[in-house]
TrEMBL record:
Its EC number is 3.5.1.88. Keywords: Hydrolase, Iron, Metal-binding, Protein biosynthesis. This is Peptide deformylase. It catalyses: N-terminal N-formyl-L-methionyl-[peptide] + H2O = N-terminal L-methionyl-[peptide] + formate. NCBIfam families: PRK00150.1-3.
Length: 214
């Protein structure tokens, strides 16, 4: 687990916050994305943490994306932000269980499955731009952790919100979505938009020759 001395950590965050905005997103291949991040234990203080959270939110919106983990900004701490307006077609919303999610700060999140059901859909990642792949994830999860003010979180998420919190929490443990993906489903963004953007990936499974994960 990455545990920078507090002085080095705060210098890293301050340097990032004083640099270009929106924050650049770290791309796959950088070791910070492959190392479990350190537990957040107040190392940044409230004021610096607040500025970092605001910068992560700005970068998430600019990308645009529905979640961003601190390691994706080069900060090896177990922090992430999520927000999803879910501005999608009705058939997509229904098939994927996509519902609007307000802005949330996740601190030291961990999840566990609730029930055996899994759902497989295409997803992408800001740290792996230009690609999409099918990933089977738990349909419902129980998320525990803290929010940005330190209050405890113990909440169930289902459908697309569950996918978002799993994806972002995985980042904090050094896992990218491609580690879990059906590799034969991998598609460039243009091919995905032109061919496989249906509400579910059954057509892609048939045409690309993979079995839908269970």
């Amino acid at each position: 687990m990455s545990r920078l001395p507090i002085s080095e950590l705060t210098a890293l965050v301050d340097g990032l916050l004083e640099g270009p905005r929106p924050l650049p997103v770290v791309l796959a291949g950088d070791p910070v994305l492959r190392r479990p991040a350190a537990t957040y234990e107040g190392q940044l203080g409230d004021e610096r943490l607040g500025r970092l959270v605001a910068a992560l939110r700005e970068a998430m919106h600019a990308a645009p994306g529905v979640g961003l983990a601190a390691p994706q900004a080069g900060i090896p701490l177990r922090l992430a932000v999520i927000e999803d307006p879910a501005e999608v077609a009705d058939d997509v919303r229904q098939a994927r269980g996509r519902a609007p999610q307000p802005f949330r700060v996740l601190v030291n999140p961990v999840y566990e499955p609730v029930g055996p059901r899994r759902a497989a859909f295409y997803e992408g990642c800001l740290s792996v731009p230009g690609w999409q792949a099918v990933v089977a994830r738990h349909e419902t999860v129980r998320l525990r952790g803290q929010d940005g003010s330190g209050s405890e979180i113990d909440e169930e998420f289902t459908g697309w919100p569950a996918r978002i919190v799993q994806h972002e929490t995985d980042h904090l443990f050094g896992t990218l979505y491609l580690d879990l993906a059906e590799t034969r489903s991998l598609a460039g963004t243009q091919a995905f938009v032109e061919r496989w953007s249906q509400p579910t990936p059954e057509t892609a499974a048939s045409e690309l020759g993979f079995t839908m994960p269970e």
